[in-house]
Amino acid sequence: MAESQWASVFVDKARDLKDNWRLEFDESIVPKYPNKGWKMTVRNTCARFKCSSCGRVWASNKAMVVFHLRLSYGQGTVKAKPLRQKCKTCDDSPMEEPTVNSGNVPILLENLVEQIRIKCYHEDVGKKTRHFRSFDAKSPHEPAHCEACKQGICPRNKRW
Ligand SMILES: [Zn+2]
Ligand SMILES: [Zn+2]
Q1: Does residue 7 fall inside a structural domain?
Q2: Is residue 143 domain-resident?
Q3: Which long-range contacts (CB under 8 A, 24 or more apart) does 26-33 make?
Q4: Minimum-distance ligand to the CA of 54?
Q5: What is the 158 CA–ligand 2 centroid distance (Å)?
Q6: Could you tell me the distance, in angstroms and rounded to a whole number, from the CA of residue 70 to the centre of ligand 2?
Q7: How far is ligand 2, taken at its centre, from the CA of residue 148, in Å?
Q8: What are 133-155's pLDDT values in tens digits?
Q9: 102-134 burial by CB neighbour count: b if 16+ within 10 A, else e?
Q10: What is the pTM of this model?
Q11: How many domains would you assign to the chain?
């Protein structure tokens, strides 16, 4: 799903929050180190990746998206950065961006809104996280090829 669609799905999901919220993508955010005044959450979903060197396509249920959140003077801002993975059959291929399918983007963003309620409004939302539809991923997860593993935030290593 295209980035601009994420923003409009998010606005729809965030409609019931007390303030206006918007979402933008920001490549420059550092997962574990939000700027002063920002909170962070990391959500996982499933996504597909395509190697730009060999054209190989793979699916991962551990595709991670980092979100930094700030509520300031009635305006909420979310900065999103999907973490990349690298093809495991090519040595010098680049880290590739995930493509989250359109069925899972709304689930991911609904879980994000729940995190906003907890972290920015201190609401007790209970445990009702919706689970994404996962792929039948056949090959094992490879930390050396996962940006989230490299940043120390992969759910394989730690619960978020
Ligand atoms: Zn490749
Ligand atoms: Zn990982």
Answers
A1: yes
A2: yes
A3: 26/68, 26/79, 26/80, 26/81, 27/81, 29/66, 29/68, 29/79, 29/81, 31/66, 31/81, 31/83, 31/148, 31/151, 31/153, 32/151, 32/152, 32/153
A4: 1
A5: 10
A6: 26
A7: 5
A8: 676 666 778 888 889 888 888 87
A9: eebbbbbbbbbbbbbbeebeeeeeeeeeeebee
A10: 0.85
A11: 1
Ligand 1 midpoint to CA 94 (Å) = 9
Distance 150 CA to ligand 2 centre (A): 7
Domain range enclosing 136: 3-151
Number of Cβ within a 10 Å radius of residue 16: 7
Span 19-62, pLDDT tens digits: 999 999 999 999 889 999 999 999 989 899 999 999 999 999 88
Tell me, in angstroms, the distance from the centre of ligand 2 to residue 143's CA.
5
157 in a structural domain: no
What is the 114 CA–ligand 1 centroid distance (Å)?
36
Rounded CA separation 139/102 (Å):
23
